[in-house]
Amino acid sequence: MKLKLYGYWRSSASWRVRWALELKKIPYDYIPVNILKGEQRGAEHLARVPMGTLPVLEIEPHNFLSQSLVILLWIEENFDDGPFVFGKDRSDRYIILELCELINSDTAPLQTPRVQNAHSDEPAKKADFAKHFIELGLRAFEKKIEGSAAIFSVGNSVTAADLFLIPQLYNAKRFGFDLAKDYPKLHKIYESCLKTEACLRASPEKQIDAMVAP
Asked: What DSSP letter does each residue of 132-180 carry, written as one string?
C-alpha cells in the first residue's frame, strides 16, 4: 500500500512530514483535511486520531501514526534511501532533536487556532499572543545556533531541525515578522532551504488544497 498522508496545506506539522517524504523520495497520497471547515473534528478523522490533529500518516490499512516528530522518526527508521534527517552522528542527533522540540513544544503549538481561540475571541489579542511565543522561540533558536557557519541549522545539509524551523518562519512572516532584520541567521537558513527541490515541492502553495482553502 502506498502511504497516505492526511494534512492541511498551511499546517506547519504537515509541511514537516511532506518535506521528509520528498527528501526520501517516498511515494505517498496526500489527502487534505480542511481545518477551517472543522473536518479534523469529524467522526472519520477522529477514528484516525482521537485528538483530531494533523498530520496523520496511514502506513497500512487502518494503521495510523500521528505527531510529526514520531512520523519523522518512523520514516527515518524504515527508509534507508535519502538523507538521514536526524543525523548520522550521535552528538548531532541530540542537537537536532533539541532544536526540533524548541519549535515543536515551545513555539508552534501556541499559535494554533485551537490555542488562540481558547485564549481570546478578539483577533488582535490572538495575534499578539501568537507573536509573543513566536518571538521567544525564534530568538532561542537563533541563540542556540549562534556562531555557526553552517548553511543549515545543523551542518551543511538539511536535517529535521530545518523541517521544523522553516514552516515556523513561514508562519512568522504571515504574522509580520521581518526575518532579515530580526533573525539574520534564520533568514539565511530559510533562503537556503527554499532553494532546495524537496522543500519547494512540500511547501504550502504547491499542495492540491492550497487553491481551495483560505
From this structure: HHHHHHHHHHHHHTTT---SSSSSSS--HHHHHHHHHHHHHHHTT--HH
Residues 6+ apart with CB under 8 A from 127: 175
What distance in Å separates the CA atoms of residue 183 and residue 169, rounded to the nearest whole number? 10
Gap between the Cα atoms of 187 and 162, Å rounded: 12
d(CA 140, CA 214): 31
Is the domain spanning 90-198 CATH 1.10.150.20? The answer is no
Of 3.30.499.10, 3.40.50.300, 3.40.50.800, 3.40.30.10, the CATH number of 3-83 is 3.40.30.10
Q: What is the pLDDT of residues 121-180, one digit of tens each?
A: 898 898 899 899 999 999 999 999 998 878 999 999 999 999 999 999 999 999 999 999
Q: What is the pLDDT of residues 86-132, one digit of tens each?
A: 998 888 999 999 999 999 999 988 887 778 888 888 988 988 998 99
Which cell numbers in the block locate residue 99?
532544536
Report yes or no on whether pTM surpasses 0.90: yes
Where are the domain boundaries for CATH 1.20.1050.10 in the chain?
A: 90-198
Report the alpha-carbon distance of residue 100 to residue 139 in Å, rounded.
Answer: 14
The DSSP letter of residue 26 is -
